[in-house]
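Crash report, auto-generated. Payload:
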Amino acid sequence: MKLAMIGLGRMGGNMAERLLQHGHQVVVFDPSDEARQRLAKMGGEPAESLAQAIEKLSAPRIVWVMVPAGKITEDTIQTLIQTLNPGDIIIDGGNSNFHDSVRRGKEAQERGVHFIDAGTSGGVWGLTEGYCLMVGGPDQAVHTAEPIFTDLAPENGYLHVGPVGSGHFVKMVHNGIEYGLLQAYGEGFEILKASDFPIDLPKVAELWNHGSVVRSWLLELLAGAYRENPTLEHVRGYVDDSGEGRWTVFEAINENVPAPVITLSLFSRFASRQEESYSAKVIAALRNQFGGHKIHNE
Amino acid sequence: MKLAMIGLGRMGGNMAERLLQHGHQVVVFDPSDEARQRLAKMGGEPAESLAQAIEKLSAPRIVWVMVPAGKITEDTIQTLIQTLNPGDIIIDGGNSNFHDSVRRGKEAQERGVHFIDAGTSGGVWGLTEGYCLMVGGPDQAVHTAEPIFTDLAPENGYLHVGPVGSGHFVKMVHNGIEYGLLQAYGEGFEILKASDFPIDLPKVAELWNHGSVVRSWLLELLAGAYRENPTLEHVRGYVDDSGEGRWTVFEAINENVPAPVITLSLFSRFASRQEESYSAKVIAALRNQFGGHKIHNE
Amino acid sequence: MKLAMIGLGRMGGNMAERLLQHGHQVVVFDPSDEARQRLAKMGGEPAESLAQAIEKLSAPRIVWVMVPAGKITEDTIQTLIQTLNPGDIIIDGGNSNFHDSVRRGKEAQERGVHFIDAGTSGGVWGLTEGYCLMVGGPDQAVHTAEPIFTDLAPENGYLHVGPVGSGHFVKMVHNGIEYGLLQAYGEGFEILKASDFPIDLPKVAELWNHGSVVRSWLLELLAGAYRENPTLEHVRGYVDDSGEGRWTVFEAINENVPAPVITLSLFSRFASRQEESYSAKVIAALRNQFGGHKIHNE
Amino acid sequence: MKLAMIGLGRMGGNMAERLLQHGHQVVVFDPSDEARQRLAKMGGEPAESLAQAIEKLSAPRIVWVMVPAGKITEDTIQTLIQTLNPGDIIIDGGNSNFHDSVRRGKEAQERGVHFIDAGTSGGVWGLTEGYCLMVGGPDQAVHTAEPIFTDLAPENGYLHVGPVGSGHFVKMVHNGIEYGLLQAYGEGFEILKASDFPIDLPKVAELWNHGSVVRSWLLELLAGAYRENPTLEHVRGYVDDSGEGRWTVFEAINENVPAPVITLSLFSRFASRQEESYSAKVIAALRNQFGGHKIHNE
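Recovered output after restart:
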């Protein structure tokens, strides 16, 4: 079918490419001329602006928004809500907070526009392996866009999980779990590394992918990372986060659900980014006060 | 090659079966007559006692010990150390603490007997899929027994990780990671369940195995568990532990390694087994003292 | 000086009483006739309504709002903002979220009314020992109301901590710390209780208040609780929360500050309120799948 | 009464001084001549060796051991067990693990020597304020030495908590709690510091000691630390530990007691001492693999 892909970065570009490979007609827009040209060479129909991209579609228009989370997503979706016609479909495949998706769904609905939130997992591997899609939105619109979802996803890798917002909600929890998985592996390899036994970490990472209980796609990737860089040389122990982890903790707390592992995984990322812990300074000062314990000077 | 399998429970029985399937000669011993007979029917050579099992072997004798952790493992291995001849090989494939394995290795070595600790992962699926084997021990003995390891394991699923003790050490950390992975999934599904969105948990478990970042063997098993029992009916939220998790925490602490996720996973198991938290009683009593906050009576 | 106290519950009633004891004129209002009468007998000037309470004051009117957090606080403050005159002062001494206080401060300011947020600690002991007051608001209004603050507080127990919102912010963090302190004591006494040593918990609670590093006001209260009820009989291990703990975690996350202890204290409260952990159900089901580990049936 | 104080460091020296102030006869020994001379000037009877210190006592001899934890404590106590006569009393006031104290108690008992473990809290303030003493040991010996305990402690600051080992056990848990309290304050002040509100941390530390729920001796010390050094200038956020925290976690795990706050406080100390988290390196490498997330280079 025909759709527009707005945003041709690492995710949107690959998704457009995958859709083209599956025979869809994809109008492509990105502020970067280079990105547009890249997709045009693959068969995409480049647009010079969001408005032009819309013009190139016919009713019901389907516009997939794949731009960075934050103001640009908000602006793009608001523009689409104002510009599209009743019956048209907006799909937000980005890392939006599900509360925003619920709100945007209502705002779109007031103008008769359908809004779908498509939580997307798979990262840079999605182009070849397919993207796991967690889709929230009204039944009919989801049904209309389904050929897109099934071609973006691997077999059984697409699910209409519920009403608007539920797609990004499920994706958020997915990422929360991911934080915990990553931290579990991280701790394990740190314990192995600190051991007196001379453990070969790359070999263990590879080994565990064959028959062990902890085998997983992430562990395959870790084995791959170790193959490329056995000592993780020049890799700084500094871990960013793109928001879903903290949102997961917020929701856990709102639901009164204890989520120690997901939360501690988030806090470990915070700690990795601190030059020094002020809390530790306070404790060092206090231990000196009550026990005369030595302060390590800066 | 020829070896004796001591202990024919869930793990030892399946391992003997897998070795027989791969053409090895396996002397089998277990206090249970039924277990011995089951393996005899598959081609195992039953022994009536540990002593008889040893007699049926010829030098260098290889004895695989697969009995429950604790006193029975200690007794079996001590008997073997005293009974076997120099050059014979004991392999402990059970859930022993690596400190015990290091000690047993020394005790065996004093009598010229080789001791190998083979950390084994794979659970009930190992029979068909192979066991991931993390093997510690002296080079020559490990080399001698290698045909056993390679046939028990799937391809690339066996590694000689280091000296005596290192096999059980790596297996211990493996299980520590497993605790963290399980808890990460557990928390995620609890957050999904507590949501106002009507999420179909079995479908999400299945979905995430197709293209998502969190796909793993454990998640495939969870999808399977949900297929069998979508509401987890009659499954009590009570989680046992068999020791490796706590040992992992002990070692992390001994190594000065922060391991919040593995530790909190262990504590969550403890909490699942408590009727009531005494700590919570103390806090409830205290909140009443300072703030007049209501005590919920028993 | 003269002021109105709106809300004569456990906190407001005691605060009105303490102000009367210090010679202030206090107009008292509460929907409960009994509460009004109780304060009237102590010298308070009862009002039949919020409107009447305001009428009984003269410019600049000072109205202290001490009603339960939530809708009733919002409604009361909005009414006051609409009713009071420029130059009048609203003081919110309740458990409001500081973000609400910042907003209410702006709304009040637009009508020329001064808004002060007074974080209040001390609980049921404040009447006799004084309330620790963390006050946020514009300098001049805080200065005007200062005689009230200094008489409600014990010596040095009042501080103007910053602009509007900062009072409730500091109070929120105070409560977050309190969660951690409570949980630290709770865990310690649970470890003592589970020991094979026959430790007399009430005696240890009392002992530690004399010369030990962990002595504190909370520990004095715990010793008191144990004196009244040495076995904590009938005290259910069920711990409520009134919001400040979760807000503290939210702010820690917003600030990228790791706060494991405060957060785990909150999660322990959540767990104390769960009949059963769904996460534990998931893990129990999974362990059965991979290892054949026994499920405990419900 | 008469006793020997072995070890005249920060703790032992002050304790000898306090006992001399209370009229006891104290034989003092320390390898440092200067330390011996200091106590001699206060009225202590200096000994040139452990053997000479014992000679200066008469039956039943009471020897208080206050030397650093580890080999020197072990050696000193073993020498005393071999040297003293039946009926004599050894008191270990140091930071020994309670398992060692239980063992030493048995070893002493075999020679008829009494062994008492006296957990000691109070730090550098004990000289003037008294030491909180948690004493384990046989009734009669504890009774004999009681005048020492009551004079070292403030009023009600001494308790015979149970049999040998229980003194150090209770002290261990005390320190575990202390870890949690310190971390709770540390986190709170870090959250205050990271806020956009311009909070004056030293003033808040002082404020909270007056009427707030979180007031405590530690908070008084923190206020003192801030008075001396309002910005904690030159105080590195690096926190040592002397063992009791990790022992508390070990015992919690042995008892199946969840102790998240005490454990996370310990892990925060570990993290404060790491240049970089290897776990974070692993996660950074992994995030790059699956999502193309940028690695921060070293």
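Post-recovery validation: The first helix of chain D runs from residue 10 to 21.
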